[in-house]
Amino acid sequence: MRIILLATALAFASTAAYADDIMAARYGNTTITKDASGNETHLYYNADGTFTGKQGATSFKGTWLVKDGNTICLTSDPAIPNTPNPVCNPVAAHKVGDTWSAGPYTVSLVAGIQ
Fold first, then answer.
1. Could you tell me the residue ranges of all domains in the chain?
2. Does 77 or 4 have the greater pLDDT score?
3. Cβ contacts of 63 within 8 Å, gap of 6 or more
């Protein structure tokens, strides 16, 4: 399913608000991914290593873990059919207000829960 793949693309941003936590800018904020068709996925990371998200009317949740300081792995619970679980991809530091490309997606980190 496309949701977890979009969620992984969302993981390509964070800021080092805390020197050792590249995910810190995400807590209390929303990471939004748009595909070429305009479909949006919203992802919400928590400092305890959990996340929730939504794509249209579909909600999902799971856990996340940054490995080696530059790879994030998202594990969906329950697993999404036909999707690797966990999904791991590179992660890079960004700040609230940034927009960037991650493969075929446009990703934005916006203030607050949206």
1. 2-110
2. 77
3. 49, 50, 51, 74, 75, 77
